[in-house]
Design goal:
The chain has nine helices and no strands. The chain is mainly α and 178 residues long. The protein is elongated.
Length: 178
């Protein structure tokens, strides 16, 4: 029971019932995640170069290991955020990699906004998803609904069960045509 409660707490998205806001969240989630996967592939393409230029420069221990951690956090965490599966922990991991990137940019160039802006934007977006969850159009919302049907509001359940209304309308059409 405690595991189920913890799962619901971890997965339950912030369910604002504004459909435009929910659709926008889904679009932002997918778009930003696709861009982040690209960063992970770039790191893996030259892991030693990344480790030397970024991780060693910061004085962090185990530069190759930490470079792989950053790359795989981006390669695994970004698709999880895109699908809205385990969004909070995945987004927190991605926020952490972007926080380290921001630190690196500040250490190299000071508070130079052109150098800092992309990692700061990524960090802010992933922090938002870490705090708020994926939204209504996500696997997390479906899992939350499946784990405890009483957790989501009636309106959220109605939105998630749109297929039932389509099925009901098609059954009505069959009945009328008979």
């Amino acid at each position: 029971m405690a595991l189920k409660s913890l799962s619901i707490l971890l997965l339950k998205p912030n369910v604002n019932l504004n459909l435009l806001a929910q659709a926008t969240l889904a679009i932002v989630r997918v778009t930003v995640s696709i861009m982040m996967v690209h960063n992970g592939f770039d790191k893996l393409a030259d892991i030693e170069g990344f480790a030397a230029a970024y991780v060693e420069y910061l004085g962090l221990p185990f530069p190759i290991f930490l470079s792989y951690v950053a790359a795989y956090t981006e390669l695994i965490g970004a698709p999880l955020v895109a699908f809205g599966l385990l969004t909070r922990p995945a987004a927190l991991g991605l926020f952490s990699t972007m926080a380290v990137a921001m630190y690196h940019h500040i250490k190299v160039a000071g508070l130079s906004l052109p150098y800092l802006e992309l990692s700061a934007i990524y960090a802010a977006i992933f922090l938002f998803f870490a705090a708020n969850g994926a939204g209504l159009f996500s696997v997390d919302a479906l899992l939350t609904y499946w784990l405890n049907k009483g957790v989501l509001s009636a309106k959220a359940k109605q939105l998630m069960k749109l297929e039932e209304s389509f099925e009901a309308s098609s059954v009505d059409q069959v009945t009328v045509n008979s």
